[in-house]
Amino acid sequence: MKVVVIGAAGTVGKAVVEQLGQRHEIVTVGASSGQYQADIADIAQVRALFAKIGRVDAVVVAAGSLHFAPLAGFTPEQFYVGLNSKLMGQVNVALVAQEYLNDGGSITLTSGIVADEPIRNGVSATMVNSAVEGFARAAAIELPRGLRINAVSPTVLEESMGSYGPFFIGFEPLPAHRVALAYARSVDGAQTGQVYRAWGASA
């Protein structure tokens, strides 16, 4: 299959490229790296991206920014970071990709463990990740031509503990290569409307 991986240069994205690349042709996309570049928060750039790439069999999004801060001082502008990037960015990709996917193709989005397990300073992340999962479940019942859509909910990565460890005390981190298996289940499997939870045993 021809698989587009958006966010291919990130920690999760690299692992997904390595995992799926064992079986499929991979097209890498990043904000400023990869074979193609696009800011997914701008649907015009997403449309231009897929016009260049053409027909594909699967799309994976492992991209999107979030802002972490205490709720007491959170501003609307800080909420818009996650809403515009991780939520609407992924929704933009799904809206455009459905026109370029071959019959039976798939879309895989990324949420995160805090959708189910909130943490301090993570109110925006919980809100956005929950919305991503809700979108995937609802879109699954409307997509035509046998198209599928799922979300992967990773826990904190071992590779990211240096940056995010203080936010995730008591969570069991997973290495990115294990999280990538959940994306493989979505791309190579047959389910739709699912949230694949790539969590440690203690989560």
TrEMBL record:
The keyword Transcription regulation does not apply. It holds the Pfam family adh_short_C2. Keywords: Oxidoreductase. It comes from the Bacteria. CDD domains: Lin1944_like_SDR_c (cd11731). One of its GO terms (molecular function) is oxidoreductase activity. PANTHER family: DIHYDROANTICAPSIN 7-DEHYDROGENASE. Belongs to the short-chain dehydrogenases/reductases (SDR) family. This is NAD(P)-dependent dehydrogenase (Short-subunit alcohol dehydrogenase family).
